């Protein structure tokens, strides 16, 4: 039997195949931050809360036609995180950077990242109280 290059190949799982396809993209993400390497980041900006949320469409369940409004429902600032045609969108001028939307994302790899606010984009009003009371008030308003 003649030797063929295919005879030396081992089957791989789907997970391994996709991991191999995505590996070039993972290199552009700063280690441990989830923030693309081309986004300037300063420790001072992140500590000062001068950040805003961004939604990664390739990771977001709604962008894959799975009904999800977890981040929109959790956002305490009316209009800062909106759903348009079933897709969540951050309104940068209204996002306070409170980060309450990020931990509720149910996607296998969190679709919400906190990134430094672009220069020239003023930070809106301060985030809600730490106890989340403003979130509860907003949630109960639409259910009456």
Automatic annotation (TrEMBL):
Record-linked Pfam families: Fer4 (PF00037)
InterPro entries linked to this entry: 4Fe4S_Fe-S-bd, 4Fe4S_Fe_S_CS
Organism: mine drainage metagenome
SUPFAM superfamilies for this protein: 4Fe-4S ferredoxins
Protein name: Electron transport complex subunit RsxB
Start-end of Basic and acidic residues biased regions: 134-144
Comp. bias (Pro residues): 116-127
Residue ranges, annotated region (Disordered): 116-144
Domain 4Fe-4S ferredoxin-type: from-to ranges: 86-117
């Amino acid at each position: 039997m003649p030797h063929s290059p295919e005879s030396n190949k081992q089957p791989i799982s789907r997970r391994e195949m996709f991991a191999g396809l995505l590996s070039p993209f993972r290199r552009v993400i700063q280690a441990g931050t989830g923030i693309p390497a081309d986004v300037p980041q300063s420790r001072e900006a992140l500590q000062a809360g001068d950040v805003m949320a961004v939604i990664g469409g390739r990771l977001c369940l709604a962008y894959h036609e799975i009904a999800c409004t977890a981040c929109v429902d959790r956002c305490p600032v009316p209009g800062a995180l909106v759903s348009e045609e079933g897709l969540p969108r951050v309104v940068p001028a209204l996002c306070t950077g409170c980060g309450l939307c990020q931990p509720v994302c149910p996607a296998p790899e969190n679709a919400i990242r906190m990134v430094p606010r672009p220069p020239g984009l003023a930070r809106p009003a301060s985030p809600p109280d730490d106890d989340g009371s403003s979130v509860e008030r907003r949630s109960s308003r639409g259910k009456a």
